Amino acid sequence: MAEDAKEGGAELVFHPMDQFIVKPLFGDGPVGLFTVTNVTFWMALTVLAIFALLVLGTSGRSTIPTRIQSIAELAYGFIRKMVEDVAGKDALPYFPYIMTLFMFIVFSNFLGLIPGSFTTTSHIAVTAVMAMAVFLAVTILGFVKNGAGFLGVFWISSAPLVLRPVLALIEVISYFVRPVSHSIRLAGNMMAGHAVIKVFAAFAPMVLISTGIGLVVTPLSIIAITAIYALEVLVSFIQAYVFTILTCVYLKDALHPHH
Amino acid sequence: MEGDVVQMGAYIGAGLACTGMGGAAVGVGHVVGNFLSGALRNPSAAGGQTATMFIGIAFSEALGIFSFLVALLLMFAV
Amino acid sequence: MASETHDAAGTASACVDAGGGAIGMPQLCGEWMGNQVFWLVITLIVIFFILSRIALPRIAAVLSERQGTITNDLAAAEDLKVKAQEAEEAYNKALADARAEAQNIVAATKAEIKAELDVATAKADAEIAAKAAEGEKAIAEIRANALVSVKDVAKDTAKELVSAMGGKADARSITSAVTAKLKG
């Protein structure tokens, strides 16, 4: 809602989407391909945070880990176990790529929770690139590893013969919807949560406009912001987890196309 | 005047699209509830199936996100 | 709606209005996508190299080293346990030995004491027997003496009695009569 709700002299200002605007970090010029923008800034912060956790945190290489080192080891073990359990042992060579995706998403999501920050993963352009990369990599890998046998992923040999062409059609469609749902799930979740917080934040100064309604609305919206924020903390992690585990599932399809 | 009608239609459509999110909520609740009832029957097997539950949640939740997206598109992009 | 409210004069972008607010969804603004994709690709490449060159090998090394340490420690603990068990066995054995020896000593001492006791008893018995024999001998002697005296007394008494009654008895017949009487 770009429109402002006017009521008397003061007004509630609804700009839930303004937090997603990309703007140049220096100056006021147009956003070109190589312009240093707030996207650059927050992605650089993500890199720094990952560097701090996984490189500086483990620089002690101690057998008895410090706190930060045990977090780093926890993340490592978590993703490694996920790859091994979901995609199988022969997927372990692709573990660094999956770890890269997971670390980037989880840190972007959590940095986006800082009030006033910019959430890079709430942009469909960003998640779509990652989802398409996963989709293309998995498809190419499937054909390279299995040749034409990769098409067996659409031909469900355990189903009755009559149903197989129908199922094959459904499987083909769902296969090509994968990158769409994969990217929109992450971006949509992040965008939705942040937009909802912003809408509630717009209701919070209601007490300045009308004291009667405001005494009810303002505390309610502040409580709602807190609650949604807590939910968002959970969602930030779960969406990173889901993105990663779906990547593992797709990878499993590429490595073992016959279910 | 014509533009107002289009805008009205877009807003009504956005509101209607949001009902789809309720369906996603029902679906996610169903997945988790069934997982929980199964897990309480056989707690030893529950640990290995948590990942499957999350995949199921992700799939059913994605459709709710789609309806949310349709609502946003109707409000901001049409 | 987007283009209707767009004020081209006051802004450098088609997606932002004059007041700096978003027009439509910023996510769908085409002119920002190239920039985002460019920086995303750079970010992902940087993260990938940080992870695959430095972080992951290091964490893997730390984890395997810890696994090795744990395995070694477990083996050492197993060794120590075996040693402790051996020590306990040795202790038990020593204890049993000591007990057996103590029992031996007790038995030997008992035997010794018994032997001494036996010897002493035998000696005492012998002494007692000797004393008894001596006593019997003395008694026999006394008895014999007594018999003789009894004979003498009887002879004298008989002689006196006979003479008191007015008879005259010769010594030989009195003796034989007394002897016969004594025997009877």
Automatic annotation (TrEMBL), chain B:
GO terms for molecular function: lipid binding; proton-transporting ATP synthase activity, rotational mechanism. InterPro entries: ATP_synth_csu_bac/chlpt (IPR005953), ATP_synth_F0_csu (IPR000454), ATP_synth_F0_csu_sf (IPR038662), ATPase_proteolipid_c-like_dom (IPR002379), F/V-ATP_Csub_sf (IPR035921). The chain crosses the membrane at residues 12-33, 53-77. It comes from the Bacteria. Residues 12-74 form the V-ATPase proteolipid subunit C-like domain. Keywords: ATP synthesis, Cell membrane, CF(0), Hydrogen ion transport, Ion transport, Lipid-binding, Membrane, Transmembrane, Transmembrane helix, Transport. Its main location: membrane. The keyword Cell membrane applies. Gene3D superfamilies: F1F0 ATP synthase subunit C. It is found in: Cell membrane; Membrane. F(1)F(0) ATP synthase produces ATP from ADP in the presence of a proton or sodium gradient. F-type ATPases consist of two structural domains, F(1) containing the extramembraneous catalytic core and F(0) containing the membrane proton channel, linked together by a central stalk and a peripheral stalk. During catalysis, ATP synthesis in the catalytic domain of F(1) is coupled via a rotary mechanism of the central stalk subunits to proton translocation. Key component of the F(0) channel; it plays a direct role in translocation across the membrane. A homomeric c-ring of between 10-14 subunits forms the central stalk rotor element with the F(1) delta and epsilon subunits. Belongs to the ATPase C chain family. HAMAP family: ATP_synth_c_bact. This is ATP synthase subunit c. It comes from Roseovarius aestuarii. The lineage of its organism: Bacteria, Pseudomonadati, Pseudomonadota, Alphaproteobacteria, Rhodobacterales. The gene is atpE.
